[in-house]
Every structure is written in structure tokens, then in C-alpha cells.
Write a structure and sequence with these properties.
about 150 residues, mainly alpha
């Protein structure tokens, strides 16, 4: 009976050791599960961050599209401005022409002033000569006219 008892005793010890190992494994699995649960929380946070970043990226893409549209509009406006703008050379030519016109106008103004004074002197001489002629006519036998 000793042999049977010994086998039973050994089997009992083995069963206890197996149960002990199973308990150790359960404890390790529980630790691993806790760590995985922590990772799940981290992954959920990462997923929320990715979703938020996707929304932000979509808004940035939308804004970028609007900026691109405005840029195209500005380019066409700039082309129209370039077509219609005066270059520095054009400006200089126009200023030179205006300077020449101003010189001509000043010269004509001076000539007009001199001519006006000349005409006034001629009219004064004519008036004096007419008055003198009116005085001389009766003396030479001509009838004076008014």
C-alpha cells in the first residue's frame, strides 16, 4: 500500500504544484490584461488625436483651396495692372513732353504780354496821330471828321 499511497501523495503534490503554476499564470495573465487595457486607453487617445488631426487637416485643405483660388484671381488682376500700368520710361517720356508743353505755354504767355503792350503803344500812337490829323485838316483846308 505504500506504493499506492506514495503515488497518491505524489499525485497530490503534483496537483498542488500544477494549481500553483496555474495561479501564477493567471496572475501573469491578469498583469498582461491590465497592461493591454492601458494600451487600449492609449490607442483610443491616439485614435481621437488622429481623428482630430484629420478634421484639422481637412479644414487646412479647404482653406488652402480658397487661398489658391484667391491667388489665381490676384494673378489675373496683376496681369491687368501690368498691362495698363505706366513704366518708368513711359512716365519720364510723358514728363519730358509736359515740360516742353509748359515751356511753349510760358513762351506764348510772354509773347502775348509783349504783344499786348506793343498793341497798346500802337493804339496810343494811333489815337494821338488821329487827334493830330483832326487838328491839321482844318489848317490845310480839309474838312475835319469826328
Amino acid at each position: 500500500m505504500t506504493l499506492i499511497y506514495h503515488e497518491q501523495y505524489t499525485a497530490g503534490i503534483m496537483a498542488d504544484e500544477i494549481m500553483k503554476k496555474l495561479k501564477e499564470h493567471d496572475d501573469r495573465f491578469d498583469e498582461i490584461k491590465k497592461r493591454l487595457d492601458g494600451h487600449d486607453d492609449q490607442l483610443e487617445t491616439i485614435a481621437l488625436t488622429v481623428a482630430d488631426n484629420k478634421e484639422r487637416l481637412d479644414r487646412v485643405e479647404h482653406t488652402t483651396g480658397k487661398v489658391a483660388e484667391r491667388l489665381v484671381g490676384m494673378e489675373s488682376r496683376l496681369e491687368r495692372v501690368e498691362q495698363n500700368m505706366v513704366t518708368k520710361q513711359d512716365h519720364n517720356e510723358m514728363m519730358n513732353t509736359l515740360d516742353e508743353i509748359v515751356k511753349l505755354v510760358r513762351k506764348k504767355d510772354e509773347e502775348t504780354t509783349f504783344m499786348s503792350a506793343h498793341v497798346k503803344r500802337v493804339e496810343e500812337k494811333t489815337d494821338k496821330n488821329t487827334a493830330d490829323i483832326q487838328k491839321i485838316k482844318p489848317l490845310v483846308g480839309l474838312k475835319a471828321t469826328s
